[in-house]
Amino acid sequence: MKLLTWNVNGYKSAYEKGDLKKILNSDYDIICLQEVKNSDIESIKLTIPKSYKTFFNQCSRKGHNGVAILSKLKEESFEQKINNKRFDLDGRFLKLIFEDFVLYNVYMVHGGREKENLEYKLDCCNILQNLIKNEKKDIIIATDFNIAHNDIDLARPNQNHKNIMFTDAERNIITKLLESNIIDAFRDFNNGEGLYTWFPYSFNARNRNLGWRIDYFFVSKSLKSKIKYIKILNDIYGSDHLPLEININL
User: Where residue 160 sits, what CATH number does that domain have?
Assistant: First the structure.
């Protein structure tokens, strides 16, 4: 089973000016998108191959957030809420339940440059952790988590230790998650430096490889032996994020 996760930073732009069209016409079984940013879901559906069944969760504010899952597999049910009113209105979560596993697509709160939304972010992370702990099936979480875990996960850790997306409180969220039978699939298979999924648009960051690894596939530890590979797609353009691809024997 081949899955892809990508924060497209605007579906329309990624489709018309970037490589999203190429992604949609590839051989993925499931595609998870974050920051869809489009209230016209019907126009989006016209661009998606008919082999996919589509699921959307839109933000209540036009042009913000939004997540989507495109799936060729038969689901049993789906959900859109984690029971945090603000988070749920923001259109940040989708859950699909399949016969053998559960899939989450999560666009986590940024937290704000001045950390004005950090407590909100931490609250949502804690709710999410409780949901994960209570799942009875194996779980796959596709996410722009907006947190870099360790120094190796960003180009300039020393300059960012107190900045949002790299505060101790945020990093501890991932540490706790990895203590609960969940693995960071990419890092378990790729231990090299300079491997990032997000680059600021400023300072020519992508060309200079001044990035952060904040996009993840978190999966049940029991699935580790079934992972064939996981990789960052460095040759895909259209967003400030890079897609992450995983192949699991499910």
Answer: 3.60.10.10
Please identify which of the residues 19, 90, 138, 144 carries the catalytic annotation: 144
Mean pLDDT of 40-61: 95
Average pLDDT, stretch 74-92?
Answer: 95
Is it the case that residue 39 has pLDDT exceeding 80?
no
- pLDDT value at residue 237: 98
Q: Give the residue-averaged pLDDT of 50-62.
A: 95
Classified as helix, coil or strand, 64 is coil
The range of the structural domain enclosing residue 183 comes to 2-248
Report the C-alpha gap between 118 and 166 in whole angstroms: 11
Torsion, Cα of 135, 141, 147, 150 (10° steps): 90
Contact 68, 32 (CB under 8 A): yes
**106 and 92 Cβ atoms separated by less than 8 Å:** yes
Respond yes or no: is residue 100 known to be catalytic. Answer: no
> What integer pLDDT is reported at residue 38 of this predicted model?
78
- CA-CA distance, 40 to 214, in Å (whole number)? 28
At 125, list the tokens: 């992370």
pTM given for the model: 0.97
Are the CB atoms for 79 and 104 separated by under 8 Å? Answer: no
Q: For strand 138-144 and strand 182-184, is the pairing parallel, antiparallel, or unpaired?
A: unpaired
Domain count, the chain: 1
Alpha carbon 82 to chain centroid, angstroms: 16
Residue 41, CA distances (Å) to 5, 12, 59, 113 in order: 19, 11, 12, 30
